[in-house]
Amino acid sequence: MTTSGLHIVWFKRDLRSADHAPLLAAVAAAREAGRGVLPLYILEPDLWRRCDMSGRQWGFVRESLADLRRDLAARGQPLVLRAGPVVNVLAAIHRAQGIAGLWSHRETGTAWSWGRDAAVAAWARDRGIPWIETGHDGVLRGAADGAGWVARWSRNMASAPAPSPAAIPPATGIEPGPIPETLDRLIGRVPDICPGRQSGGRRAGEAAMQRFFDRRLLRYRRGMASPVTAGDACSRLSPHLAWGTLSTREVMAAAVRRRDELRDLPPAITGDRLKAIDAFIDRLRWRGRMIQGLEARPDSPHVTLDPAFEALRGAEAGLRGADTAGYLDAWSRGETGWPMVDACMRALARDGWLSFRMRAMLMAVASYHLWLDFRPTGTVLARCFVDYEPGIHWAQAQMQAGTTGSHAFRMVNPVRQSEVQDPDGGFIRAMLPALARLPAPFIHAPWTAPPSVLAEAGITLGRDYPAPIADPLAAARAARDRLSRALHGAGGTTDTSITENPDLIPATAPGTRKPRPQPEPNPTKLSPAKASPAKPATRRRKTDPRQLGFDF
Ligand SMILES: Cc1cc2nc3c(=O)[nH]c(=O)nc-3n(C[C@H](O)[C@H](O)[C@H](O)COP(=O)(O)OP(=O)(O)OC[C@H]3O[C@@H](n4cnc5c(N)ncnc54)[C@H](O)[C@@H]3O)c2cc1C
């Protein structure tokens, strides 16, 4: 390492000073060499122009950068922001001040970030500038998600989070640079209004963590699925983990601390909270595992994990063109005429967040009932999610679309989900005011309401609220038949077996059965298959359509 020049800490999805190994290492190296540290965020227009990135994500990042700037300034050197391609920004700094070392977390991203990192690595190598990358979230470069992964991850997560550096040797003579309010001008986007978005920044992350462990734990397991309860039952830590205002290790350490405290209390006092912590820790592990999966398959936003599904949707005869585009548009805008789907889309537009169960439903309905390809639908959801994390997102998008090679028949009944997760229809009414006066048994499927009920509620379908885009039962049957044909040959199959998916609930006519809350599925059982041919489902049932989970 040269002794002249600055030590640059390149912040990306790690917008914090605590538990930040590259920052600590850079501070130590700079101190030894008597040089300054330059904490740098590079606003990359090419990244933010990508169709999976959005203004709402920038809103969260902007607040996180402002918080980080304050934090670092108090330690001696504020965060510096520069806009442009990374190599150009680094080259300008190198020309002006010299760069002694580049320090960063390793990014597990899409093919785009791999390409960007390759260019940065080549640039640094050519100039003899060492780029020291550190792992993140227990994810290892080049390691397979196989035997021993959990033990390795658990060991990594069990180590104590490192504190923030007490003082940072400053890089003198460098303007911090403004943090733009929006990216609209820079990248030519329309404003992305998301009034219910969570606030960014370390302090907001710490407050969310505190709220979760103090108050939300009790509601976590029972309330995590329904859109009525999930917003106040889940941890809501996802954007903080995605943009790194909190590290997974810090959250894990807090969870373990809380578990130890609760273990000292009598069961009558702890209630469900110990189980809730275990369920939460499971999810942190799934998180690591899925990001590890993206290390192995950075192409997963672009190709189906099982090649057998590559040309199945969209390309099929008769589904290209206006019809497919119409479905995508209606689904994206929350105008399918299927209330739970539309309400979730509206909630997502407003808040930038949804529970796991509702995300899974949106993706599954798009992939089966509407027969849409996972790439455009996954992209629409990605940019709606403030917590967009490519490793989790594309693995989940492909799982729910059934393109991983396991669980190809992953249908979810949007009407049944509505009955179970929003039995009184309160969430739907809040999101779809046009349906506000429709009584509960019919709010889940307004097209089944007698004309007199619709008239009394002041609704004309197709005018006040969309008529259903398709009959859900017919659409699900068509999807099942297409899949059967594709998987079992042109003659199709009468095999209507389904997989072990708690979403596949025997259904009845709207409002005639008391809904039961369903347990959350365990994604570790659903991990992407190694490009194996899709297998017929394992559990067989009778062909009564009510047992297929998509009928009424
Ligand atoms: C189609 C689809 C797309 C998704 N895209 C994303 C995404 O881009 N970013 C994202 O963070 N999550 C994604 N998820 C997973 C999950 O829905 C969210 O993590 C969760 O809803 C976030 O809320 P929370 O932080 O309150 O979750 P909690 O239940 O409190 O979980 C705590 C943390 O564990 C992780 N986690 C939770 N569920 C999962 C899971 N099933 N798989 C992997 N990790 C999990 C997240 O980091 C989360 O913040 C997606 C799920 C689906 C079905």
TrEMBL record:
Stretch list, region Disordered: 488-552
Stretches that traverse the bilayer: none
Protein keywords: Chromophore, FAD, Flavoprotein
SUPFAM superfamilies: Cryptochrome/photolyase FAD-binding domain, Cryptochrome/photolyase, N-terminal domain
Transmembrane helix listed as a keyword: no
A family per Pfam: DNA_photolyase
Name of the protein: FAD-binding domain-containing protein
